[in-house]
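ESCALATION

Customer reports they have been waiting on this structure for their group meeting. Please prioritize. Original submission:
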Amino acid sequence: MAQRLTDAERAALKTTVPKWSVAPDRDALRRDFKFADFSHAWGFMTRVALLAERFDHHPDWSNVWNSVRIELTTHDAAGLSAADVRMARAIDALVD
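Update from on-call: job pushed to the front of the queue and completed.
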């Protein structure tokens, strides 16, 4: 079973995954992405889906036209875990 992040690991999130924030309404990392249009947003989601399959760690997400919101949490840990940080960093590598 996955372990929740420690207090020290949580404190380090601002440097570990600086473009992500802790969602105000749940124990999850959140990031919003904007693209030129729906096609670019959908292409990004496809690349993230392939990462999710490889890592066996699937995001909660939504898409409206050129916007994608991703939230990462580990259901087995009932909150944030190292798997969420790893996935956030991999997603960042796709766009940054």
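Sent to customer with the following note: The chain is about 45% helix and 20% strand.
Escalation resolved.
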